[in-house]
Amino acid sequence: MAEVIVRQRAQADIRAAALWYESRRPGLGSEFTLRVDALVERIGQNPLQFPEIGSGVRRALLQRFPYAIYFVVAARLVVIAVLHQRRHPDTWKQRL
């Protein structure tokens, strides 16, 4: 498994979404975080299974939650954003 680095802004994205879900229903924020962690692990195991969406950035979609993990494949895998799917599709570009 390749090393996956999650940038601070992406960590903040995860925390904010988890807090929002937790405020809606107890335990839902924890489930969101577990699904993000599982997907990050899948990214580390086989990053090329996820489609490239531009500028060397790939996107992995979460199940059950309308979020995507945007990451770059370089010497290490770097998660640059975890964003809701209804956000503008170019929002991740500001994080490069």
Number of strands: 5
CATH domain class: Alpha Beta
Radius of gyration: 13 Å
CATH architecture: 2-Layer Sandwich
Largest sheet: 5 strands, mixed
**Which band does the percent of strand residues land in?**
25-35%
What structural class should be given to the helix and strand makeup?
alpha+beta
What order do the strands of the largest sheet run in, or round the barrel if closed? Answer: 1-5-4-3-2
As a percent range, the share of helical residues equals 25-40%
Structure description:
This protein is of the alpha+beta class. It has helices at 8-24, 28-45; strands at 4-6, 52-54, 57-61, 67-73, 77-84.
Give a brief description.
The chain has helices at 8-24, 28-45; strands spanning 4-6, 52-54, 57-61, 67-73, 77-84.
Strand and helix layout:
Elements: E1 4-6, H1 8-24, H2 28-45, E2 52-54, E3 57-61, E4 67-73, E5 77-84
Parallel strand pairs: 1-5
Antiparallel strand pairs: 2-3, 3-4, 4-5
Helix pairs in contact: 1-2
Provide the descriptors you would attach to this structure in a database record.
five-stranded mixed beta sheet, 2 helices, alpha+beta, YaeB-like fold, 96 residues
